[in-house]
Design brief:
The structure holds 2 protein chains of 2 kinds. By secondary structure, chain A is of the alpha+beta class. Chain A has 8 helices and 5 strands, in the order H-H-H-H-H-H-E-H-E-E-H-E-E. Chain A has a 5-stranded mixed sheet with strand order 1-2-3-5-4, with helices on one face. In chain A, strand 2 and strand 3 form a beta hairpin. The model of chain A has no long low-confidence stretch (mean pLDDT 84). By secondary structure, chain B is of the alpha/beta class. Helices cover 32% and strands 30% of the residues of chain B. In chain B, a hairpin with a 2-residue loop joins strand 9 and strand 10. The chains are: A alpha+beta, B alpha/beta. At the A-B interface, helix 4, helix 6, helix 8 and strand 4 of A face helix 1, strand 6 and strand 7 of B. Strand 4 of chain A pairs antiparallel with strand 7 of chain B.
């Protein structure tokens, strides 16, 4: 009983102390930025007021303290406050610039020269050994290029349907190279096709699954792409049953770029989660707020 | 021994079947007498078949699952003459040029293959005559190649922990260290804080301290490791303690007196 009483008193004292310190610092900030002219005015009013009530001491204290604070610490504090305001403004500009940069980096990276080179080599080779297959791979490459290139110009025109289409073409080409070592499964309901989805994220995840998960695995495996809506969120998942993630391997520019862009576009309401399912391999899930249609 | 007496044999190793088909077709044109005795789809298979069939020449792709072409070559070079095949890769090409190792650029062009075949025939003939290229020399070159290609682009840094594994339900969440704001020890567990999520792991702070990159995470308190890049500001509270604010988390972290030197200039 007594202990709790003491605690209550302590709490009260602590609160009062906090409140007092807040008021003091507010006063301090005000002093730092206020013009001398205005300060003189307040001195005059305070003096007059306290002179009327015949107790000039508080007024003299006020004048003395405010003068001392303003002279001694005002300049520094004022500079700090101005710097803070400038920082806030700069932050908004920086945020916009960072988004632009991240978008550009993702788009520039989208057609990897290595991939283009290898695919053309494959087509050249298939022309000699298997012309119909060459024609198929060639058509996939054209699909792939067609769906990547316009995105570089049009802003925000990316939908999940488009991204899936792009990924299908990419995976078809990889299947022509890896043959029975690569299996592909898509589980994306048609109605999600029109949902907005940032460009080159699905693509990066699929490339990672193949490059780090399946290519190093002798027998290869399956890449499964799944999209579904959970509550008000769109979940897009890329899973592979490859060699899994080495805890000492760098997470790479690709994933960092996705995270950065999600944070800039959606703040805390989007995320990229990586996990290893009990059966092995790796799963990457992008979660972002679900919208039915691309806003016009 | 007369080369005509026994036809020369070769092995082709590449993880992509179309590439094997192409090389086989091109070799048939450029060197009709060469017998392709085996095709391997990965490094392990290449070594097995190479050791079993002892081909005169082994065409090895560099990037293969299981075992890289260079690793496979180190097991096979004493018996078989090695020819590497690689797609565009400046690192590897420089190494090959310096080391005078045979290589083919993929996709293999007919002209280039003809030159290589002529060179191979000449080399193998001199080997038949006893003037063999010293295999230990090739061994050294391969060892050099291994270190060169495995460590490319990476400075000599120990492998730090880049992913934290946290059990979530039945699956294991992989949390990239770049997502993590700080670690805080919480009695038996260690709490991992990211923007918007927290996980509990069993690894102790001491273990983490040993495994993480010391430039990426700083210890600021007996029970706290913070990611340097996540620090937003350092300030003093009324009691004179240094407090850290991190980006994306509303609270503050205390810097203990022992670690305050980290932020001395601020």
């Amino acid at each position: 009983m007594r202990a709790s009483d003491i605690n209550q008193v302590l709490d009260f004292v602590r609160d009062a102390f906090n409140e007092a310190s807040k008021v003091w610092w507010r006063f301090f900030d005000w002093l730092a930025v206020v013009e001398w002219r205005q300060l003189f005015l307040t001195w005059f009013f305070v003096l007059v007021f306290f002179a009327i009530v015949h107790t000039p001491e508080p007024a003299l204290w006020y004048i003395f303290i405010s003068f001392a604070v303003k002279v001694l610490a005002g300049g520094k504090r004022r500079a700090e406050l101005m710097a803070r305001e400038a920082t806030t403004q700069a932050n908004v500009a920086t945020l916009e610039r960072r988004l632009m940069e991240a978008q550009m980096a993702a788009l520039q990276a989208q057609v990897e020269p290595h991939f283009l080179f290898n695919t053309l080599a494959l087509i050249g080779q298939l022309i000699e050994t298997d012309p119909p297959e060459a024609a198929r791979v060639h058509a996939h490459l054209i699909d792939y290029l067609r769906s990547t290139l316009p995105q570089m110009r049009q802003r925000g025109g990316a939908t999940l349907g488009k991204q899936v289409e792009l990924s299908r073409a990419y995976l078809a080409i990889m299947q022509a190279r890896m043959k029975e070592r690569l299996h592909v499964r898509f589980d994306v309901p048609d109605f999600l096709g029109s949902a907005p989805f940032p460009p080159m994220m699905l693509q990066t995840l699929i490339e990672n699954a193949i490059k780090h998960g399946l290519e190093p695995k002798i027998e290869g495996g399956t890449v499964a792409v799944r999209a579904h809506v959970v509550d008000a969120d769109l979940h897009v998942e890329v899973c592979d049953d490859g060699v899994g993630i080495d805890p000492h391997a760098d997470d790479g520019v690709g994933l960092a770029n996705i995270r950065e862009r999600l944070a800039l576009l959606y703040g805390a309401s989007a995320s990229l989660d990586i996990s290893t399912p009990p059966g092995g391999g790796a799963c990457a899930t992008i979660r972002l707020p679900y919208k039915m249609m691309e806003d016009a | 021994m007369n080369p005509d007496a026994h036809p020369l044999t070769a092995l082709i190793a590449d993880d992509e079947a179309p590439m094997r088909d192409l090389l086989r077709a091109r070799l048939k044109q450029a060197w009709p007498d060469l017998q392709i005795v085996a095709e391997a789809a990965n490094g392990v298979e290449a070594v097995e078949l190479g050791e079993k069939l002892r081909p005169d020449i082994a065409f090895l792709d560099i990037r293969m699952p299981g075992l890289s072409g260079i690793e496979a070559a180190r097991r096979l070079y004493e018996r078989s003459h090695i020819v590497f095949a690689t797609a565009y890769d400046q690192y590897a090409l420089d190494a090959f040029e310096q080391g005078a190792l045979d290589y083919l650029l993929k996709p293999v062009s007919a002209e280039r293959l003809a030159t290589t075949c002529a060179r191979l025939q000449a080399r193998l003939r001199t080997r038949e005559q006893g003037a063999a290229a010293a295999p230990q020399d090739i061994g050294q070159q391969l060892a050099k190649l291994t270190t060169l290609l495995e460590n490319r682009g990476k400075p000599e840094k120990p492998a730090y922990l880049r992913w934290i594994q946290a059990q979530v339900g039945s699956s294991l969440r992989m949390v990239s260290t770049r997502e993590i704001l700080f670690f805080q020890s919480d009695e038996k567990y260690t709490r991992v804080q990211t923007v918007g999520a927290e996980f509990l792991i069993r690894k102790t702070l001491k273990e983490l301290l040993d495994e993480l990159d010391p430039d990426e995470f700083w210890r600021i308190h007996r029970s706290t490791l913070v990611r340097v890049d996540a620090i937003a500001e350092v300030k003093r509270d009324l009691r004179g303690r240094q407090m850290l604010k991190v980006r994306g988390w509303p609270g503050e972290l205390e810097v203990s007196r022992n670690h305050s030197y980290l932020f001395q200039q601020m």
